[in-house]
Amino acid sequence: MENYVFHAYTKMLFGKNQIEQLPDVMNDFGKTVLLVYGGGSIKKNGIYDKIYALLKGWNIIELGGVEPNPRITTVREGVRLCKENNVDVILAVGGGSTLDCSKVIAAGHYYDNDPWDLVLDGSLITKALPLVTILTLAATGSEMNKNAVISNLETNEKFGTASRLVIPQASILDPTYLFTLPAIQTAAGTTDIMSHIFEAYFGKVKDAYIQDRFSEGILKACIKYCKIALQEPENYEARANLMWASSMALNGLTGSGKSHAWTCHPIEHELSAFYDITHGVGLAIVTPRWMRYILNDDTVEQFATYGHNVWDIPMEEDKFEVAHKAIDKTEEFFKEIGIPMTLREVGIDDSKLDIMAEKAVRFGGLGDAFVSLTKEDVVNILKDCL
User: Are 385 and 270 in contact (CB under 8 A)?
Assistant: First the structure.
């Protein structure tokens, strides 16, 4: 296991009616608030009115309409509102897109140039407004981590940035807020959680036993509870476990001590940069194809372990057989929860595979990944996804 620093300092307020603590949380940061949200579902489910009722006496400025793949144009508007109104704190209400957008706004408030610079280079983030979140979708883990992903539609670019300075100060997680989610958002959110686990779990470090067992437990929870949540949308146990899985999958718990380069995420980022598809859907399409592509004598042990510990496949003498069964079960699960499993189903043909593959490896390739990939490898994987 490699040296690491594990620092998860977000105050997590988990459970029913935790929003009642919002005034106490916000009191620590000031009275002028930028309220950031997405398409308006919080006005339908009552969260919006509840916030205003609880924050009487606060000066609230609104930024609504954050896109599912948040755009730099929206970040720029948020930065403008913060600077013009001397905002003290940002309250982000929604899923990962809203939270990611808010993180870059928080950093952009103290940056004199275009906030797209902060997306390209997180080291330019030197200060940020405090951020409080109310989570309404279990997926990205943004409620407890330093990461943000922003799209620039003018250049067909989608990049992730990161800074400890934008980690939320506090996050409110009420599983009942997931009850009204469309089924596809529950499914796509679950695939995103699982992909966060996969990126660290399938890595070169072999002796991070505790981290890998954490990972397997979270994966099993996703597999168990996603189906229940789809069948019983108001099943509190299912929603609570998926919500906590989201936070635990990408707060450093499973990846500490395991240096790793992500693979499926950079590939999918190009799909959604060019075609604006749902991130979790793209990940579900790419992941099984990537798994099959990299299965070899060096990787079979980890895939067999995955099959045995996560899918309960008996460990047979032929580990390749266990590995193939595990990958098949992964793809079958994605199909069962309603995820489209080919690129053509989401409107993507072979016309841009070459340029997307080139962009996916633009920063020196995916050479530090579990298995090194070149542009040609990425093209082959994307062809398998058609």
Answer: no
CA angle 128, 130, 136 (to 5 degrees): 120
As a whole number of angstroms, the distance between CA 334 and CA 354 comes to 26
Q: Residue 112 phi/psi, 5° resolution?
A: -85, -15
Q: Which one-letter DSSP state was computed for residue 55?
A: T
Query: Phi, psi at residue 366, to the nearest 5°?
Result: -105, 50
pTM above 0.90, yes or no: yes
One-letter amino acid for residue 72 of the chain? I
Three-state secondary structure readout of 139-165: CCCHHHCCEEEEEECCCCEEEEEECHH
Distances from the Cα of 352 to the Cαs of 156, 160, 264, 357, in angstroms? 12, 21, 17, 9
Q: Per-residue pLDDT averaged across 206-214, rounded?
A: 89
pLDDT (mean) for 223-252 = 96
pLDDT 10s digits, 285-313: 999 999 999 999 999 999 999 999 999 99
Pairwise CA distance, residues 13 & 174, whole Å: 8
